[in-house]
């Protein structure tokens, strides 16, 4: 190993799903103008791939993103298709006109059809063969993977890999995974697969960022993220948190960190969902210091300099009556 190679950062794909997952957030809908602005923002901050088509809205989403293609957006545009869709062949054909690739979804829960595991495998293999006739590269994703017996997850992923899937998507669909468990299963998968692995985390228990980091440290090549963590229920893994965290951990995401606060503000405006002042990285309070003991050396209480993400440090003057109470005499 040369001295130069020791300092090369391993690349990690942050696949942005803001234009797909965010519209599952209650009250959020991006019209054509908003989609163009968000897509332009993603390109500006260094996102390479954007997931823009939801499996439940394929026809509508494809029409909505057509103007992005016409405008020459340089992002790789991708979408999801359920293998169980009765219109699968038609959806693949229509998607091939506008998308660079698709990822096929095979829900692993026995409560979602087909109920049997052999049925899921059989349908996956047939669907993958069909999709590879329309796309040069196809991925296969497994919703409920974190809730499913590990051996079956590995078995079906290996079969997808052997049948030509370029990447495997591991979904923590209900946000119930924890970092040690994620580390274990992703490490096993990476050791068994030729295909790259992408982790998709939800934040129901506040662990989407931690689980995503655990996946990368176990060998995952990519993560699904959204700006401001928008998404179903409690949302998804936050692009801004993971971009900074991975940079600090020595990975290369290609994201321009200096524009993260700007990106957060724009998506908050377009979505109508405000960002909490307490939000890590981009919240208004992230670099605001009130405690008197912090004011002399505020940088000692910060994980990174605010300028890194386009923020600024603010120091509050000590307010009368808010200092720590003196000890009472006996």
Would you give an account of this structure?
The structure is a single chain. By secondary structure, this protein is α/β, with parallel strands linked by helices. It has two domains: 10-271, TIM Barrel (Alpha-Beta Barrel), CATH 3.20.20.70; 287-324, no CATH class. The protein contains eleven helices and twelve strands. The strands form three sheets. Strands 2-9-8-7-6-5-4-3 form an eight-stranded parallel beta sheet. A two-stranded parallel ribbon has the order 1-10. Strands 11-12 form a two-stranded parallel sheet. Helix 5 (88-98) links the parallel strand 4 (76-82) and strand 5 (101-105). The protein is globular, with a radius of gyration of 22 Å. Mean pLDDT is 92; it is low at 1-6 and 318-323.
Number of helices: 11
Radius of gyration: 22 Å
**CATH superfamily membership of the largest domain, which one?**
Aldolase class I
Give the class-level CATH name of the largest domain: Alpha Beta
Give a brief outline of the structure.
With 330 residues, the protein is of the alpha/beta class. Helix content is 36%, strand content 15%. The strands form 3 sheets. It has an 8-stranded parallel beta sheet with strand order 2-9-8-7-6-5-4-3.
List keywords for this structure.
TIM Barrel, globular, eight-stranded parallel beta sheet, 12 strands, alpha/beta, 330 residues, disordered N terminus
Per-chain topology:
Layout: H1 3-6, E1 10-11, E2 13-16, H2 18-21, H3 32-45, E3 49-53, H4 58-70, E4 76-82, H5 88-98, E5 101-105, H6 117-131, E6 138-142, H7 150-162, E7 167-172, H8 179-192, E8 196-201, H9 208-217, E9 222-225, H10 239-248, E10 251-252, H11 260-271, E11 288-289, E12 314-315
Parallel strand pairs: 1-10, 2-9, 3-4, 4-5, 5-6, 6-7, 7-8, 8-9, 11-12
Helix pairs in contact: 3-4, 3-11, 4-5, 6-7, 7-8, 8-9
